[in-house]
Amino acid sequence: MRRRTMLTVPLAVALTGAIARPAAAAGAVAASPQARVLAGRVEELLGKLTLDEKISLLHQWQPAIPRLGMKAFRTGTEALHGLAWLGPATVFPQAIGLASTWNPELIEQVGSAVGDEVRGLQHERPKGWGLNVWSPTVQLLRDPRWGRNEEGYSEDPYLTGVISTAYAKGLSGGDPDHLKTAPLVKHYLANNNEIRRDQTSSDVRPRLYKEYEEPAYKAAIEADVACGVMTAYNLVNGRPCTVTDLNSSVRTWTDRALLNVTDAWAPNNLPATGSQKYFDTLAEADAAVLKAGIDSFTTDDANPANTIAAVNEALKSGLLEESDVDTAVRHILDIRFRLGEFDEDGGPHARIDKSVINSPAHRRLARRAAAEAIVLLKNEGALPLDARKVRKVAVVGPLSDTLYADWYSGELPYKVTPLAGITKRLGAGASVTTSEGVDRIALKNAATGAYITAGTGATGAALKESATEPGETQHFDVFGWGQGVVTLRSAANGKVVGMRDPDGSGYQFFNDQEQPNGWFVSQLFKLEEQSDGSVLLRYSGYENWLGDNVYLRARAADGTLVLGSAAEASRYTREVVRDGVEEAVGAARDADTAIVVVGSMPFINSRETDDREDMGLAAEQSALVKAVFAANPRTVVVVENSYPTTLNWEQKNVPALLWTTHAGQETGTALADVLFGDVDPAGRLTQTWYRSEDDLPSILEYDNIKFDRTYQYFKGEVLYPFGHGLSYTSFRYGTPRAVPGGIEVSVTNTGRRTGTEVVQLYTRQRTSRVKQPLKKLQAFRKVVLKPGQTRSVKLPLTRQDLAHWDVTRSRWVVEDSTYEAMVGSSSGAIRGRTTLDAHGETVPPRDLSRTTRAENFDDYEGVRLVDEAKPRGTAVGAETAGAWLLFADADLRGGAKRLVARIAKESAGEGTIEVRLGAPDGRPAGRATVASTGSRYAYTEVTAALAGAARRQDVYLVLSEGLRLATFSLS
User: Fold this and answer.
1) What's a single GO MF annotation on this record (predicted)?
2) What does the pLDDT look like over 19-32, one tens digit per residue?
């Protein structure tokens, strides 16, 4: 969270002077006595370790060293929204849902509960357990199509920083000397696409890094509640994140030791045998990883052999010194000491045991978090429901009577579905009708007349063509998830059909899964209609090595369904046993209220390795909503998914819309709490909800400023703005005013119910040398007000909060300008404004006579940011002929006579760099020829005489294709 200092001048706040944001020196040791004792203990143990023992500690699975009393240690327990992958545990709302509460105090309690449950296994230490937890995920949700949207918090860096700091504080226990767990933030840096995620490069120019990306990662580390970072798979500015220099960035944010780790298998992407091919050998790669500030290699699962061999080879060949290994091991030991591992009593958290897992207190907390995460998107008087009057309710839809886990979810200890929660809330005497609204079908081989038949019992059986008459074992419920993808649930045992190879003889299909699951989701199909009216059953799971055209066929020997080509595929007649929409309409038609629960399946619609291509509801679900609404206009739609959705028809037509993420075991109870008004809707959106995919540039385009991304820069009409969320009451805002330390505004509950409001403070800089955000969230406060109650809400604002990164001098600056302070209930619902006159500074014209880094441009076309050298540095690479860089408002009044540029050109032949004035095709002032340097990392200095480069004006550098420009000057 940003550290704040008090404003001292009210109303027209006079803000003077420039801003320097000091950073702690890398590797600095805190001066407290306790820190000195810890450092001494670390050095003592480090000195007792042999080189081989030290190297063994660099892998994720650190072995025991019995002679020194060291137990085995593992980095990486997953704890995104609860303890994951280690059996039943309390499942809280997905991360995007936690952030939607806008309640850092609540999120800290959730983090503390999760930390307790991680600790609860310490006496058993099961395989896969450890006290270094890989959470929170703080990647900014700049693009709602990102497959891992559910794992992040917000498109806003400040809100992300507040929520992640709260969660990490809970996980760590809040005392950096006595850690409950050692959380790290992930994935550093600028990782927001799954498509080719280990090969794509995110362009992050200095302003984007300093103003947007860095704050999200920095907040929890600067607050000393997170203990490191996990690097991302992607490249940034042409350099893999796995070898991005953490020593000059992340390690400067705190005086404490950090334990930084790679993402799983990422080191193996780096050598010539991997996808990135950044180094020739694994030894070179692993040496670079350590030198970049990584301490632990997450690779090769539990087998450390490759890492140990590579590090030894790097030491032997002089790529590493033993001191490099010592540095990483020192960080590892520091964290292990702070976790209490080497304390005689195990530290203050040693007595926590398994009884905390899914405890009654944690179940209550899960219910509260799930309720506060719900966002009321629209309400035309349909909500809240009055349980005394609404006695006949229909609860329909594919998510009405199920709860889904996601990849990083824990195992749900129990499930309160929407149907169960609403039924319980209505109590005895009420009538609840239901339907999932999906078709039940039978599939008959068009040639033989045999039906696909499933097994009975919990484990099901291999699907075969056997029966000649359809019964329950031949019936399947078809759930549509969009773009033609469906899952098949067997009516025989309620289990989902998936694919596996049970004995090595080939893939078969079994009705034995609780839900779609697995890294390679194998429960997906498409029913492809043929010209003769039959359908082919196409396998559409994630096992991409099988190819894109794989179908189901009946094995001749026994009718077992196996894989085949389209030519081999069996043709089926699709017999509808039950029309799902018709059944749902029948359940809803006469109800006092119809509640339609639709949404996503977290393993299907988007997830790690799979970005969304369609931002709407699945066509089958949209048709269901329209049919139910046509039958009963008293329809409430609940959307349960993990990302913004283009609900244009629903917003226009349906009287009430609620959104929740996949919210864990208490989803149904929490939903009933909000629907019936026991809890006022308190959730607020943490992302912009767009009307169309057309409002967005490519998912691979990371420049928010140039391409008008997120609420900060987007100028179009949105479906729901960032921060949006309604209450069951209404609020009146007074006139905001500047006071010492921030902005104060009165808020009054003008309705008849107690309600919750999230008061949000945004600022806007009216004039600037550069393009500024339209709005920027600076503070928020969640308040609960009784009917008629007025509260004065103070929102902190400091001078530093008005700063932006000045690329002309590479430092923070507050410009001499008028700033608007805007207070409201969302970024699109501003209720009051005041102005702040900041007596800052005027950014002087650029002095290009000094050596200027090319990456510090003001605008560009046809270029990419690239790695200047493998260890560090950013250059600008020309992707097209006529690519250009703008350096605005340059002071050439002294008369620039000479261009000096440091350039690399890998390709053969000559290239050129031109200086033009006023425009990319403006008056030429000079031109230099660049010969091939033979390598992208071999730079040469070129010069050119300049003519007419005078006055104060914009300077453009125009580059031919293939040039890489690091620095230049006009002297």
Assistant:
1) hydrolase activity
2) 333 333 333 444 57
